[in-house]
Amino acid sequence: MDLSYTPKQQAFRAEVRHWLEAHVPADPLEHYDASRAGFEAHRAWEATLKSGDWGMVTWPKDYGGRGLDLIEWLIFEEEYYRAGAPGRVNQNGIFLLGPTLMEFGTPAQKQRFLPPMASGEEIWAQAWSEPQAGSDLAGVRATAVRDGDDYVLSGHKIWSSRAVFADWAFGLFREPGSERHKGMSLIFFKLDAPGVTRTPIRKINGHVGFAEIVLEDVRVPAFNRLGDEGQGWHICMATAGFERGLMLRSPARYQVAAASLAGMWQARRNSADPLLEADVVRAFMNAEAYALNIYQTASRLSAGAKIGAEASTNKIFWSEMDIHLHQTALAILGADAELVPEPGTLRRGDHDWLDDYIFALAGPIYAGSNEIQRNIIAERMLGLPR
Amino acid sequence: MDLSYTPKQQAFRAEVRHWLEAHVPADPLEHYDASRAGFEAHRAWEATLKSGDWGMVTWPKDYGGRGLDLIEWLIFEEEYYRAGAPGRVNQNGIFLLGPTLMEFGTPAQKQRFLPPMASGEEIWAQAWSEPQAGSDLAGVRATAVRDGDDYVLSGHKIWSSRAVFADWAFGLFREPGSERHKGMSLIFFKLDAPGVTRTPIRKINGHVGFAEIVLEDVRVPAFNRLGDEGQGWHICMATAGFERGLMLRSPARYQVAAASLAGMWQARRNSADPLLEADVVRAFMNAEAYALNIYQTASRLSAGAKIGAEASTNKIFWSEMDIHLHQTALAILGADAELVPEPGTLRRGDHDWLDDYIFALAGPIYAGSNEIQRNIIAERMLGLPR
Amino acid sequence: MDFTLSAEQQMFAHTATTLFGNTCTPAHWRTMMQHDRAFDPDRWAQIAATGFTAMLVPESAGGLGLGEVDFALIAQAAGYVALPEPLVESAGIAAPMLAELAPDHALLRDPAAIIAIAPAANPVVASADVAGAFLLEKDGHAFLATPDTIALTPAQSIDPLRRVFRIGWDPAAAQDLGPADWTRATDRAAVFAAAQGMGLAQRAVDLAVAYAKDRQQFGKPIGSYQAVKHHLASAQTAIEFARPVMLAAAATVAQGDIYARARASHARIVALEAADQAARAAIQVHGAMGYSWEVDVHLLLKRALALTGCWGTPAFHRARIAARLFTRPAGPDQTFAKEQSVA
Amino acid sequence: MDFTLSAEQQMFAHTATTLFGNTCTPAHWRTMMQHDRAFDPDRWAQIAATGFTAMLVPESAGGLGLGEVDFALIAQAAGYVALPEPLVESAGIAAPMLAELAPDHALLRDPAAIIAIAPAANPVVASADVAGAFLLEKDGHAFLATPDTIALTPAQSIDPLRRVFRIGWDPAAAQDLGPADWTRATDRAAVFAAAQGMGLAQRAVDLAVAYAKDRQQFGKPIGSYQAVKHHLASAQTAIEFARPVMLAAAATVAQGDIYARARASHARIVALEAADQAARAAIQVHGAMGYSWEVDVHLLLKRALALTGCWGTPAFHRARIAARLFTRPAGPDQTFAKEQSVA
Prior knowledge:
The complex is a heterotetramer, with 2 copies of chain A and 2 copies of chain C. Chain A is an alpha+beta fold. Chain A has 3 domains: 7-89, no CATH class; 124-230, Beta Barrel (Butyryl-CoA Dehydrogenase, subunit A, domain 2), CATH 2.40.110; 249-381, Up-down Bundle (Butyryl-CoA Dehydrogenase, subunit A, domain 3). Chain A is 45% helix and 14% strand. Chain A is built from 11 helices and 8 strands. Chain A has a 4-stranded mixed β-sheet with strand order 1-4-5-8. A 4-stranded antiparallel β-sheet of chain A has the order 2-3-7-6, with no helix packed on it. In chain A, helix 4 (91-104) packs across helix 6 (232-244) and helix 8 packs antiparallel against helix 9 (310-333). The mean pLDDT of chain A is 92. Chain C is α+β, with helices and mostly antiparallel strands. Chain C has helices spanning 7-23, 26-34, 41-50, 68-80, 87-101, 182-214, 226-240, 243-252, 258-286, 297-309, 314-327, and strands at residues 115-118, 125-126, 133-138, 141-145, 151-155, 164-168, 175-179, 216-217, 220-221. In chain C, helix 4 (68-80) packs parallel to helix 6 and helix 6 (182-214) runs antiparallel to helix 8 (243-252). The two termini of chain C are 25 Å apart. The chains are: A alpha+beta, C alpha+beta. Chains in contact: A-B, A-C, A-D, B-C, B-D, C-D. Chains A and B meet through loops of A and loops of B.
């Protein structure tokens, strides 16, 4: 064990910090789910990032990355959150589909899809759920019928994040007649293709964060299938690992929030409940524990290990930590907690505790509900019977 | 609604208080599960109680009671706990079997069993569980074979509280060949009868609170069967209602503990974690809430209602309250928490927080585990599917 | 010693449940939000016609002279539908205070009058745009002001069915009613917030139960999974142990002593915690649906959140319970204790 | 930046796991309790032979000169078997302090020597009856005393495998070693309590998992019920997020700065909480079995309870984290911060 950064890692941190200081917008962008304008402002930010070669630093240079390792990725994320830089509108692409493409894609697919993903030219939505298949992904009913070099897609997807404004989506489609885990393929489709209808779904904060997608005879080339025909379930499980694991929820996000919470506490402690200090300290402890856990995982992966069911413990931990942290913030705010900040009053680095609390409430639900995660931990880590 | 006591109720409280002040032993008795001597000291206390007609005040006078109502019962319990009077060694009799006998017994059975129960002449153990049937009571395998006017009992019971020293036990026995909920009868047997072997089981505090009971061709008269042949499951569910409901856990018990906790907090607050004050206040709130809930239930029952699945909410509430209260006590004790009080140092009204904490840990397990209770609430109160 | 409700109380509660249930439907919530409104004049007129607004005004001041238990049942029904109109604030807190200070005031004779109330602890006033008068706290006094003397600045509550304003006012332009019992107002606010919390909590459980019976996953209704059952059973348990506290608090608030204050605060804390727990459990049970604007549960969560901040924080209320616990005897014979008269 | 353990560390840990696993079996616990003993001289001799007692003594003082990470792995293995012998107190806390104060002391050359340590915060001393010497805190100084100068009064711990004594001693009869770094001792105690907590917690989960696979109720193994799964999954999650904190605390404790102190305290709090949570979950999963003396889980619970009170309460340790949080920068670039040298 050696818990200090190498000179190279320190230099990298300085480089990231320097670049971000020069480029991060002074005022927060409108949220990418709030409007088309907010979405496009975030796409423009992705292009700016790419101009500095920061699109996805762990990817190979050929695909728009820098070929860096996981520790450097964590350092990049630390600086990114520290700088209060905009949220990553293409997270479904760069954090979920990207790593999956890297593992299962053909060279031609990687060359086609990864660089515009890293640059934000093509922004991705996920299309996992269906009205009858939420936690039960094997219950997917949408179909892909092979027709020469094409597939013809039909079906109904829902809770697709980013799909209202995004360019592309990926989802599971099954060979007609196949059942449960078999016969499914992971296929990409353009969201403005003929036969695709998108209906926005508003989140409880009022933003149109999701869409319902109806596909009626949508024709896509077979090139858009990732992996072998029928391999979709297997690939999807790998993707779920990424989602719950390292990338989706950077420790830096919570460390920044915990530090802000501590600052707010110090500013307001004289008028707040003195007993909340324990919660403020706990929020800090949680964020540190999460960071240390992720550093440990990164060390393990660097030494050749694969991420396994322990990714489910991450999902539970960060989702519960996030709710606790924001509950504490609202408790400190006391009588002001219910009030939405006046438009335009939030500056870079300011937290919208209320909106973030509402967002945090979704944590135990999405990316596989915490009930499902606890089942996975019990069955795959602990070996309890199904 | 009228939340004040009538003059008659106030007079009754004064009468109870006066009698207890004159009779409750100055020093605590040895625990009834700790030794035969402790057990017999408690039996003697039951006789003293009966000498004042306090054995079971809600029972009819003919059966050793005073024919009082539930509000008076609560007042009696309040004064009983307030006085620091000994635990009721016959609780399996007076609180569980007694009410069931009152509902399902024949006049002859009531006359035979209730008066010696009220006086402590006959002390009862329960024999619900079997090695293969813990939470799953319908999995009982012990059998009762009818032979003329007798039953011949065989089988294996476990976790029988009080059974090491008690005189009688009651349990479920099935007609050979019957299955699940059918064919079971509730039958009494003497614990010193030929064919009964008792093996003590120690609790985690070291006391022999349970026994394992093996029955080999134990002959009992059919008179010892409560209710009709095969009605055992139905009766048992009623008994479970009593157990989780009003009688087993008097609010007074927790109100006394919460008041003591508040006293300890005030004595030690300067050297303890200041944040524990919230837990001390919470323990008081919980005890009060439990008392108010029980008063409300008593009002409902007095108005003719029956106790239902909401008894399961009681079980969950008191068991969780009890653990929280004692965790708080140990946290206040800090470095002293691990130390068992020196023998003989506890006086009447003193709390053995550590032993009570260990006892509290059993709360979510016995009398139907809290998991089972939550299933009952979900299915019977809320109507969710099995 | 009797916890049961009278026939009259049950009748009033039934009227409220029916009126609110018929008019404040999920469809109506949606219509109001679509038009960015939080007040329905038709419903308010019906409410006024039932007498709910006059319940806590003494008969001598033109009211019905009923008690806090009676009104708590109405507030509970209001919570069950997340009623947007300021019935609780106006009729439950402001009107009885005005009746104590100015029993002859004409507003007390107008059942449709809305009296806004602004204790120093609250940063905003709900429904201030429809108020006919304002009761304002300054230095322990109550000031009565007319709407034309009040400057309203809209603020935005997380609760879309709660319309709040920051207010500016000039004591010189208002009528000084003298020292007022703001503690009593806080007690009533606590009891009726608790009552609303009970309604919110039960509604959340009811919505989740209905969904869990219907929604299928892995081939069976999600309500048959233990995790779903246990979430909702825990929420219902919290409700069962908050409701008697709320009722006892309503029954004793008129005592106005340290015991009654502590009980009111206790009721408020546990009822709003139950509402929060039930709403979050309901969101979790609904899965992604629960996180969408179109499912109603979030409205209950947001109302509970808004109520938690008004009329004293949880810490303020906990301190009132601590004051009772640490300065008066506690124990099983003290459950229904009252301050002994000092006469 | 590397969290992986060296081959040597893994080898030492393996030796500990094997030695403890072979000798400190449930059957052996039972035998010890039956004879009311908490010290096995044979096992202690084997422990001394492995070098564990010399790990934190510098080579210059006759020890192995290893670090806190190395010893933490041994302490974790000791926790997994609820080791009765005072290995952690003697070799993990007392020996390195003695080596700092009196590097030439003969006790440091005797691997079988047991050094008891008595900080002012602890009311009792474990295994004082087998100690060869006592390190005692008074006014910030450390005093070294021989057993014949110490008056032992037995006390009873809830943990039957922990034998504790109140002690009486006379500074005039002891050797004043001068001012000692009791904060450093507290840091080590915190880290190694955390390590033991990790062992206790994992053992509790492992015992419960084994039982839940085997035990049948309602016709299937209880481990197939969601409620059982979720209890144990939650406990395992707590373990997964305490273990890296414990390792990081061990790796940084030698810094001796405010960051290292906060991390040690953090590790101690969450590891002992995880142990308590896991032990209680395991008792619950075992049902009535879990509440019987014959099932071993209660021994884990009681050890965790005993450790929680020693060497500073949770509140003391929380205050050390607060001191770091509120006086030094926090945030994602501060995870591995050190106090800058003032040279």
